[in-house]
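Appendix C reproduces, verbatim, an entry submitted by the partner laboratory led by Prof. M.T., so that reviewers can inspect both the input and the predicted structure.
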Amino acid sequence: MGAPPVAASALTATVALYMTLVAFGNITDFGTNQQFVQHVLSMDTTFKDPDLMWRAIESPALQNAAYVAIIVWETLAAVVLLAATWFWITGLRRDAYDRARAASTVGLVMVLLLFGLGFLAIGGEWFAMWQSSDWNGLDAAARNVALAAFTLLVVHLPGVRRAGAERT
């Protein structure tokens, strides 16, 4: 196993552990980030612009459903990335590298969708999270997008394959 596969393995494992801890934290300490989701969706700490407030979701049932969906997505991403990490670690055969790369790609895109689409685009823009000084997760979301995107790039470097394997 050369340096590029080791880097892909280590970075995938890092994101896998991070997502596992995020999901575990949200499951075992449900209320902390539940408040975050409720405030973002209700838009109660934004500038209260009447042209935007129609977007607010004030139903606790819908807010909780959104939060549970986030936790399920985090958990699934963690499971996929943990499997990808296992494939990288055991990647002695060409098909294991292909599976490692494919599983990493799926898991990392899931992370990008959660934090890029979910938090940056939907939370940040649609629900105007950027306007809140108290409930603004844009910096954390951007860090997660950066880590997942960088890892995805490393996973797809040309040198990340078994020595002697034909080029794809």
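Residues 3-155 form one domain. Additional entries are available on request from the coordinating office.
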